Backbone:
């Protein structure tokens, strides 16, 4: 899922990202390997509903071999789980490894970070 942002929002995100990258390079910000970083609450809230977070937990804990198995573990309809997995996949949180008609969900990132600093690089 994508959404449109204004030019000002894009510039703000760009500044935040530059600040974050500079901090990582200079060693003032430590981000673990295999991390996914969110720069804004809008995206974080869009991606992380309670049910999607539960799916990530179930994938990590049970390593289901199919979406159907994950739906069974979560006690949810397969269609709803598929919809949530597509959202998580669009944000690179999970990968659906397809083999024939079966898709196996896999987690892509060990850490998820939300940047609360709101500091930006100087223009």
Residues:
């Amino acid at each position: 899922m994508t959404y449109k942002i204004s030019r000002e929002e894009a510039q703000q995100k760009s500044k935040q990202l530059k600040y974050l990258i500079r901090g990582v390079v200079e060693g003032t910000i430590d981000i673990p390997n295999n991390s996914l970083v969110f720069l804004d609450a809008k995206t974080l809230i869009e991606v992380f509903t309670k049910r999607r977070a539960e799916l990530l937990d179930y994938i990590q804990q049970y390593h289901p071999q199919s979406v159907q198995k994950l739906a069974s573990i979560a006690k949810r309809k397969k269609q709803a789980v598929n919809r949530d997995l597509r959202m998580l996949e669009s944000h690179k949180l999970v990968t659906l490894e397809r083999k024939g008609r079966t898709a196996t969900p896999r987690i892509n990132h060990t850490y998820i970070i939300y940047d609360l600093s709101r500091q930006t690089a100087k223009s």
User: Anything to note?
Assistant: The first helix runs from residue 7 to 26. The two ends are 31 Å apart (CA to CA).
